[in-house]
Design goal:
- The protein is of the alpha+beta class.
- Helix content is about 15%, strand content about 20%.
- It contains 3 helices and 5 strands; from the N terminus they run E-E-H-E-H-H-E-E.
- It has a 5-stranded mixed beta sheet.
- It is globular.
- The chain starts with a strand and ends in a 6-residue tail after the last strand.
Length: about 110
């Protein structure tokens, strides 16, 4: 099971095992990681699971689809590495992945 490290805006780290096939958002919610609100439950209908993917992992997370791009318009402080964590399916090769959360969601 891949380990993913979620880093809050203040630097506090939360490392959890996340089952393959879940989304990065589901891993955070199931492990009560603060900073990922997931108001829409993973339907790509909000931007409250916004994260920054560590540059070393962007090739493994895929690219943003049109709907995700639209929802990121509602996120604060969007960067090149911004993603909605509900749109990233966890795979075995994501073991050790780092995601960072912005100070505010939505």
């Amino acid at each position: 099971m891949p380990k993913i490290t979620y880093i809050e805006h203040n630097g506090k780290e939360h490392t959890h095992d996340v089952a393959t096939g879940l989304t990065v958002m589901e891993g955070a919610v199931r492990n009560l990681v603060p900073g990922i609100d997931a108001d829409c439950g993973g339907a790509c209908a909000c931007a409250t699971c916004h994260v920054y993917i560590d540059a070393a992992w962007t090739d493994k997370t895929g690219t943003r689809e049109a709907m995700e791009e639209s929802m990121l318009d509602f996120a604060d402080h969007v960067q090149d590495t911004s993603r909605l964590s509900c749109q990233i399916k966890v795979t075995d090769d994501m073991d050790g992945m780092i995601v960072r959360m912005p100070e505010h969601q939505g």
